[in-house]
């Protein structure tokens, strides 16, 4: 892999010094960073207007355009530059002696470098080779770059790209494309919710009591209130308050923060979608989740079978299967495992497989064993349903199966994409679950939930039967592109 020093050049300090001198010269002549420029057209608009001009044509159309210099060739009386817009579209600029004059041409040769933002005004033409161009009658510096771009012939490497995303966006089409895909996916999600009469709301990022998930929070302190606060790990408990208040279909897309590990599928800061539907349940919310993802694929790519970054396909079409956690585990393990299976038996089976689990909850063993036996074989999108009751403190008991709750996790390409519940709305049972979580916290579980009296008070005013779901936006982008989580986040947290 090419090192960062090699990418940026061994003589970087000298190059910066030279460019600083050019900046001073530009400021003497006019301005290295003008406040505005007479731009009349975008590069995209010109290319759309003249898609198939023959070679050596003068259109007579006068335009003013701006772009970043990505290619530069200075030869005698005629200089060439490739100007790039923010979308990656490029057009050729031609600076000729007979159009701009000797002084301006020499200033171009002296002061313009790769990476500079340049404004040119002139006629739209095609060159003798047929390349769409602007034959400049004048040019101005739009923004002088002090630091040169890396060698564009080298592979920047993922680590360099995520640390210098602004450079990645300049030089790599795929980086810009992923940002565009993400924006279009977000629009599709909002359209689907709008068509189903959901309302988008915002809930607090800073919380007095963290809850809504089992995770370690980030802690902070409010000077104004002189109190400890937490960056939220989930918006769930506030969104449920909204349902109590009569907002029967609500969703939120925003940031969550979990003070945990970082790997290809986890980031300490990540975008999350959560939605709650009064008078729905985990079945209706699974239908909604499938619709959200399939609509996003169709709206952005025109198909439910998306081609990933490595050339493979992710088939999101059709009705996705729903399998029971306990039944699928029993079948894969070759031994019946139920909510009544003694935890000692589960420990024995785990140890025989080399799986070390140190946890008092029966459900933790079930879930870990399921991940060992079943998860690796899930290629198609699959809803895994009916989880152990002791690992799902915010979920309603199953209406007909003892010892499990009405919860599903959606797995896509081997990782968890989303989760959904029939929500627990009984305040008495919810208090009992919170008390049990407090006992786990006392025993040393750092992910156990705290008892939230304000949330319980809200439930005591009556929350209708509801379905709820949560889905990681970054992971959704992973499903649609095949990229790692750091590539789907515009500016990921890096050490």
UniProtKB/TrEMBL annotation:
Listed A to Z, the keywords are:
Aminoacyl-tRNA synthetase, ATP-binding, Cytoplasm, Ligase, Magnesium, Metal-binding, Nucleotide-binding, Protein biosynthesis
Q: Which CDD domains match?
A: LysRS_N
Give coiled-coil spans as residue ranges: none
What is an example of a Pfam family matching this protein?
tRNA_anti-codon
Which GO terms of type biological process are on file? lysyl-tRNA aminoacylation
Indicate which residues the UniProt annotation says bind Mg(2+) 2: 416
Kindly give the Gene3D superfamilies that the UniProt entry links to this protein.
Answer: Bira Bifunctional Protein, Domain 2 (3.30.930.10), Nucleic acid-binding proteins (2.40.50.140)
This protein is called what?
A: Lysine--tRNA ligase
In its UniProt entry, the species of origin is given as Aquiluna borgnonia
Gene designation: lysS
């Amino acid at each position: 892999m090419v090192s960062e020093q090699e990418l940026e050049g061994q003589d970087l300090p000298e190059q910066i010094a030279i460019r600083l001198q050019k900046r001073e010269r530009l400021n003497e002549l006019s301005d290295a960073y003008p406040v505005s420029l007479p731009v009349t057209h975008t590069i995209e608009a010109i290319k759309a207007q003249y898609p198939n001009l023959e070679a050596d044509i003068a259109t007579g159309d006068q335009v003013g355009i701006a772009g970043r210099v990505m290619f530069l060739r200075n030869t005698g009386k005629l200089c060439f530059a490739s100007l790039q817009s923010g979308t990656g579209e490029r057009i050729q600029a031609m600076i000729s002696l007979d159009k701009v004059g000797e002084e301006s041409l020499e200033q171009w040769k002296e002061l313009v470098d790769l990476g500079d933002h340049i404004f040119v005004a002139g006629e739209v033409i095609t060159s003798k080779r047929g390349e769409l161009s602007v034959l400049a009658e004048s040019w101005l510096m739009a923004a002088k770059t002090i630091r040169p771009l890396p060698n564009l012939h080298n592979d920047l490497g993922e680590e360099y790209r995520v640390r210098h995303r602004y450079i990645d966006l300049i030089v790599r089409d795929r980086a810009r494309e992923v940002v565009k895909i993400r924006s279009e996916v977000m629009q599709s999600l909002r359209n689907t919710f709008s068509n189903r009469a959901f309302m988008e709301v915002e809930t607090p990022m800073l919380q007095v009591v963290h809850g809504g998930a089992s995770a370690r929070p980030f802690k902070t302190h409010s000077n104004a209130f002189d109190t400890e606060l937490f960056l939220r790990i989930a918006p769930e408990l506030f969104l449920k308050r909204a349902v109590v208040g009569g907002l029967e279909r609500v969703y939120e897309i925003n940031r969550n923060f979990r003070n945990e590990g970082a790997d290809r599928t986890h980031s300490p800061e990540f975008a999350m979608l959560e939605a709650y539907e009064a008078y729905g349940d985990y079945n209706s919310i699974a239908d909604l989740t499938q619709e959200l993802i399939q609509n996003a694929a169709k709206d952005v790519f025109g198909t439910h079978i998306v081609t990933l970054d490595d050339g493979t396909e992710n088939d999101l079409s059709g009705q996705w299967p729903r399998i029971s956690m306990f039944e699928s585990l029993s079948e894969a393990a070759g031994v019946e495992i139920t909510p009544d299976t003694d935890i000692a038996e589960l420990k024995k089976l785990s140890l025989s497989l080399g799986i070390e689990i140190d946890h008092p909850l029966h459900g933790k063993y079930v879930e870990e064993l399921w991940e060992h036996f079943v998860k690796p074989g899930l290629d198609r999108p699959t809803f895994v349903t009916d989880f152990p009751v002791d690992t799902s403190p915010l979920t309603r008991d199953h209406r007909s199966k003892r010892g499990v709750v009405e919860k599903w996790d959606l797995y896509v390409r081997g990782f968890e994409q989303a989760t959904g519940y029939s929500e627990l709305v009984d305040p008495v049972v919810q208090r009992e679950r919170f008390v049990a979580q407090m006992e786990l916290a006392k025993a040393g579980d750092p992910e156990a939930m705290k008892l939230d009296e304000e949330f319980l008070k809200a439930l005591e005013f009556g929350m209708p039967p509801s379905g709820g779901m949560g889905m990681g936006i970054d992971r959704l982008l992973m499903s649609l592109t095949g990229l790692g989580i750091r590539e789907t986040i515009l500016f990921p947290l890096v050490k």
